[in-house]
Amino acid sequence: MAPDMSAHPVTIRVDKTRTVSGLVQMPDRAFACCVLAHGAGAGMTHRFMADVADGLERRGVATLRFQFPYMEAGSKRPDRPALAHAAVRAAVAAAGGYAPVLPMFAGGKSFGARMTSQAQADASLPNVRGLVFFGFPLHPTGKPSNERAAHLSAVRIPMLFLQGTRDALADTRLLVPVVEALGARATLKVIDGADHSFHVPVKSGKRDDQVLGEILDIAGTWMRKVSGDC
How would residue 204 be classed by pLDDT, with cut points 50, 70 and 90? Predict the structure, then answer.
């Protein structure tokens, strides 16, 4: 695994008894900061998470990645929502300390995206202007449903959904109407041929790194627009 561009380790206090690890990347002349939560099966150092943070750094976005408590403890069972939400809030608060003058965004990959959106729906994350979802997990594999999207109607800030057409956890036939129902505050960008991890088949004519660059360009442009830095 190649080293991250300029990731600095930090410790984030979730509550009186728990702390989790984090990684901060702060480019020169950053225009925004984004808190990134990992997926259910791999932590903040997973190659995808590192590549997203590196790519956003090159595009002028500072990031704070963090571990959920279960991942910090070496468990494979994801935290209950209340604890996961507390970790999201703690990470957002920590990011505010490292980047106090930057417009703040939050989100992440799959499970991390859903926990972040649920936390925002329960009570607004302080100073967060928008949410970025790298593969929102609309339903379990093989069980199409839109029940996991019910809380999104309570999210009152802009949301960006980055989804592949082959995403087994988000049937686009269900996701499109969900996003449409959210109105102007929700934006959906569909990547043709990409799966839940944004892998594309060789026959697509694209490489995975090209797809990642595409979604990061979209995310960076969207954050500039939402933050008013256009």
Answer: confident
